[in-house]
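Anyone have tokens for Acetate kinase? Sequence:
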Amino acid sequence: MNILVINAGSSSLKYQVIEMPSETVKCVGLVERIGMNNAIFTHEKNDEEYSEVLPILNHEVGLKKITKTLLDPKIGVINSVDEIEAVGHRVVHGGSKFSKTTIVNQEVKDNIRELFDLAPLHNPANLTGIEIAETIFTSAKQIAIFDTAFHQTMPKEAYQYAIKNEFLQKHHIRAYGFHGTSHKYVSEKAIEHLGEESSEKIITIHLGNGCSMSAIKNGKSIENSLGFGPMNGLIMGTRSGDIDQSVIFFLMKKLNKTAEEVSNLLNKNSGMKGLTGFSDLREISEKAENGDENCKNALNLAGYRIRKYIGAYTAALNGLDAIIFTAGIGENSSLMRKLACENLDFLGINLDLEKNKIRSKEIREIQTDSSKIKVLVIPTNEEIEIAKQSCIHLEEIFIHK
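Reply: yep, here.
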């Protein structure tokens, strides 16, 4: 079975064609900087990479470029769109209605649309991906995999807010958690690598343009730093992370900002971008190295926030066996891993600075020999996880027919 996996982010579009159940990856690709004239398109097949810089102003243009490449006689992997039997879509927010993988129909699309306000940078892009894929891959099953699903195991004390009970009961206002596909994938890899007895209490740290951390006990999520929407917690590329609610009221009342203006500010013009003018950590790190004080400060703030959550989640877990870094920044930025692990020796976390500098696509341990806590870098593969869940769901439907 050929499954096309589409992972539409706020400004990116990842894809893979995966043959299941063997998990054979036929090709991988990525569209970066969607919305810009100098978007970067990369496509890899059999370890040979093709790249191009071109204008890709929206996700529709990006997905059509991907389809054209998949059908290309030289670098493509299919001869007809009918060879794709299922398209697995990452959807960020499933709200209270979606706690598991589901086949897409009109009701599902309407429900995803209703959640736009809770994930304004993601759910619109996710739905666009679904709707365009429906017009291109007409014979394929469209399947939605929700980022919030893995965190449905969070206990009530972790997901309920201290506001009137009716807001939870009637309006489903609660913490949902996000990046669940990634946290699930790397936590399972960590358990395989370390063994169940050595991985009962782990913290997974997903660092990309969007960032989150999860406390995972015996393979199940009990906490996630993102909440009702994907804006809380860590400092992100353009999102503020944790902020005192009083700041929002101040912006609206004293500075006459509308709700939409405040939302745009906190979602699109805060975080690293707000602190430095740049959202790409590579640029920020380079400028910090060259003496830019704003960039130095932003990196220190981001590192401090991660360390604070490590401490909090160690308490929630009542101990700690390992921490795992993953996603674009977590896997590739030795600097951010170093900042995240500073001054945590009281917890038994000691980073080996030389091991930390090694780049690899494999699972690796980067703690010192004397460190009580394992520190791992595990490349995430949300696409494989999405393909697995899509395949399992289709098999379950077939069995119950």
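The chain has 15 helices and 14 strands.
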